Amino acid sequence: MTDNFDEIKDQDNSEDLNNICDECKEKDESVSQNLILTGFKICKSCRVSKTIFPI
Asked: Is 19 within 8 Å of 27 (Cβ atoms)?
């Protein structure tokens, strides 16, 4: 039973770290870095644009 739970847990983590930005849908290495730092899956360019134009 616990083996099945560990497999499900590993699948959920791999989906979070796919390096695809939620804003522009492009693949970038900075997405996983920003996910760790801020909790949002956005790339570096989207983060800068959200900082300058916070709408």
From this structure: yes
The burial class, CB within 10 Å (0-12 / 13-18 / 19+), for 31 is buried
Partnered with residue 20 across adjacent β-strands are: 27
To the question of pTM greater than 0.70 for the whole model, the response is no
Per-residue CA distances from 48 to 29, 33, 42, 45, 54 (Å) = 15, 14, 10, 5, 10
Which has more confidence, 49 or 17?
A: 49
Q: Which two tokens stand for residue 4?
A: 């099945």
